[in-house]
Amino acid sequence: MLKLDIIAGARPNFMKIAPIIHAIDKANKAETKIRYRLVHTGQHYDTNMSGSFFGQLNIPPPHKNLNAGSGSQAEQTANIMTRYEKLLMEEMPHICMVVGDVTSTMACAITAKKMLVDVAHVEAGIRSGDMTMPEEINRIVTDSLTDYFFTTSTTANENLLKSGVDKQKIFFVGNTMIDTLLANRSRFMKPPVWDEKGLEKGQYIVITLHRPANVDEQNKLKNLISEIIHNSNNLPVIFPVHPRTEKVLKTAGVDHKNLYMVSPMSYLEFNYLVENAKAVITDSGGITEETTVMSVPCMTLRDNTERPETITEGTNELLGTNPEAIKPAMQKLFAGKWKKGSIPEKWDGKTSERIVEVLANVEVC
Ligand code: UD1
Q1: Distance from the CA of 334 to the center of ligand 1, in angstroms?
Q2: 174, 98, 136: which is closest to 305 by C-alpha?
Q3: Domains in the chain: ranges and CATH
Q4: What are the C-alpha distances in Å from 123 to residues 43, 292, 355?
Q5: 356: Cβ below 6 Å to ligand 1?
Q6: Rounded to the nearest whole angstrom, what is the distance from the C-alpha of residue 103 to the centroid of ligand 1?
Q7: Is the pLDDT of residue 291 over 90?
Q8: Nearest-angstrom CA–CA distance, 97 and 38
Q9: Which residues are bridge partners to 97 per DSSP?
Q10: For residues 95 and 117, what is the distance between their CA atoms, to the nearest angstrom?
Q11: How are strands ordered across the β-sheet holding 2-8?
Q12: Distance between CA 301 and CA 227 in Å, rounded?
């Protein structure tokens, strides 16, 4: 029987691990093939950023919470590593499974590998080429230590092959985030802001911004928001504000009759809002995948992306971080000229089953 640690630490991790856990539970029904220990690093800890996802996505309570909490990148990494190392000393798994590209992903991969535990990386191989992003460093470090590469796209496969990874270690399985999206689409629920502001389908814009390059400098953030509002054809603009962004906005005095800033939303509420939006403007990576599958126009305020298929196949377009790019993109949207897109290969809701199939066949002594 395979002993597996599953690591989750920050908001975008929770929707990626949920379907894997459910697929393991399903595979274990007849006979226990995989025994897992769910480890929450505590990188995100609020109900808004963590707790609500466990409830809504039916994720069992973690076996262990490392309570690493806030801090600089180095502090968080160090806290997670020292605490996970202690846990490994109590009981060693055969494989440590990490997902995505957050600090917790890298910290646990390093710790596990140094303790001679194999690493499996879900969402391996994606690259933005932008070394100013902490996530890019996390991806590169994690993939340099990974034994089982579970990938979401053919581009990710190519990136790994180019960097010298053995083909046999790459498993092109698809996207677990989309497993969660498809499994929960019929359960999406109206967030309170829907009735409070009298929102209507296709008649509002959603924005999310949290990347340091967009939010850490107050003036830049104000300009981006103002440009969006002034090019939104008077539609309401709904902005669920990430804690990092909230800190900067507190003293910024951003206010407009069409702008509604709300707390970070639960998964089911946020995706209800996205599914029915006229468009989403974001600097997130995961949201570009969800809008692609739901065929919602998406504008990304970044200079690069590690998810090129959301542009070549999906509904996403890169605008860069200069506010001037917003106006022409919004004009195209309101002229009805936005692309419809198609769904990338293997984003079919069955990715977790494919991952579990691979894991169940791992030989352990
Ligand atoms: C992290 C991830 C990023 C991901 C994002 C989604 C890294 C390097 N970055 O960035 O890839 O897209 O999460 O949310 O791992 N905070 C709270 N409550 C919480 C969690 C955080 O108030 O529950 C505060 C922290 O104190 C910190 C700020 O939010 O000041 C940012 O949190 P942090 O975990 O450092 O990184 P994110 O910007 O959220």
Answers
A1: 33
A2: 136
A3: 2-175+347-360 (3.40.50.2000), 186-334 (3.40.50.2000)
A4: 19, 17, 11
A5: no
A6: 9
A7: yes
A8: 10
A9: 6, 120
A10: 6
A11: 64-65, 34-40, 2-8, 95-99, 118-122, 148-151, 170-172
A12: 12
Phi and psi at residue 32, to the nearest 5°? -75, 115
Q: Please report, as a single letter, which amino acid is at residue 356.
A: V
pLDDT tens for 159-201 read: 999 999 999 999 999 999 999 999 999 999 999 999 999 999 9
pTM, to two decimals = 0.97
pLDDT tens-digit series, residues 208-257: 999 999 999 999 999 999 999 999 999 999 999 999 999 999 888 899 99
* Contact (CB, 8 A) for 299 and 281: yes
| Token output for 95 | 């494989």
Please state, rounded to an integer, the average pLDDT across all residues of the chain. Answer: 97
What is the pLDDT confidence band of residue 25, given thresholds at 50, 70 and 90?
A: very high
> Is a pLDDT exceeding 90 seen at residue 365?
no
Residue pointed to by tokens 């977790």: 352
Task: Indicate the SS3 state at residue 8.
Answer: strand
Measured from the Cα of 100, ligand 1's closest atom is 11
